[in-house]
Amino acid sequence: MNAxxxxxxxxxxxxxxxNTLAASFIWGINTLFLLxxxxxxxxxxxxxxxxxxxxxxxxxxxxxxADGWGRRMSFLLGTVTLAGSTFLYFLLWQFSAPFWWWAxxxxxxxxxxxxxxxxxxxxxxxxxxFSGYEGGLEVVLGRGQMVSGVAMLSGSVAGGVIAxxxxxxxxxxxxxxxxxxxxxxxxxxxxxxxxxxERSAHPLQATRAVLKASVDGGLRHPxxxxxxxxxxxxxxxxxxxxxxxxxYLLQLFGDPRAYAIAGLxxxxxxxxxxxxxxxxxxxxxxxxxxxxxxxxxxxLSALVLVVLMFTTVFWLALALLALWAVVASAGTPVRxxxxxxxxxxxxxxxxxxxxxxxxxxxxxxxxxxxxxxxDLYGYPASLAVGGALxxxxxxxxxxxxxxxxxxxxxxxxxxxxxx
Length: 419
Prior knowledge:
79% of the residues lie in helices and 0% in strands. It is an all-alpha fold. Helix 6 packs antiparallel against helix 14. The chain is globular and about 55 Å long.
């Protein structure tokens, strides 16, 4: 990695660290926060579903913003939107607002995150290629996941401890403060390199042009399309499991107010991100095809969720959830690299946003459905049902593999990347 590429990597890791740290202060206690505000399980997971509705509605428009106005502009808009909507969440909790207020603000939270999704990753890939970096994307993306894991580990544990020492609302205020700081950091360090925004005197015409090109490079490109069609099952279940961990582990632990244990649930996933990010490039050196990694991690993590249905011991459940998280995390950088090597630069942010949209669409349906399952049959049964749903993604990954894209076998220094 040359000096220019190292600089790009440092900026990327700094943005990832700060952004994940800000977000993770509430990840360990979010479901408990909603339940404390007077929502039922169904309403709490429905509020989370409205968050994903916001992501579905705004993923592509904000992806077009990133490709049309610049990835830096998209990131800055994201920090402002997410800080404002997080503060509104705090106010709803203060005043015990009715469910539909939570739904509306959850949509705004989704909007905030869509400004980040696709934009940062697209900025990184284009800037690295402009700098002359020829290594495998799994290496840098894996490091990003490791840094994200460290930030999430720190933020989620701190959020749980702060909530237990003060109240469930304070971590939300801490998140707002960190997001304001990240606005300043991104304003100073993040500049679009290796990419020229498609600015136009006719913004609607430019938006349609970018969107059409993104559809051509995404849904109309078979190997990309099938990976996107797998996303609703993998991402939808993953979102539910992450938020269900908090009340599920507290239930097994036997103390509904042990908020530090809830923080431990998010920290568990964070630790898995670190391990998975470290494992991803090493697994790729051993496995020829990226889709082989994706199929194996999908099946194994789904089976772990099914096994949890028969687990009643807290520490055993914790170990199984750690295994689930590590397996899922090890496949994430591989999937990111696979997609990026099949996407053209000018539509990268929009196509990645559309991929995120597909995952969010799964969350809109899966979260309330599994939340209702938890109300009727308990959290272990809902996790097992989630595992069964996740297995539906495997045939789609196999269909992508059968298209024989060059990106499936691309490795360090190989010409697998899209222009």
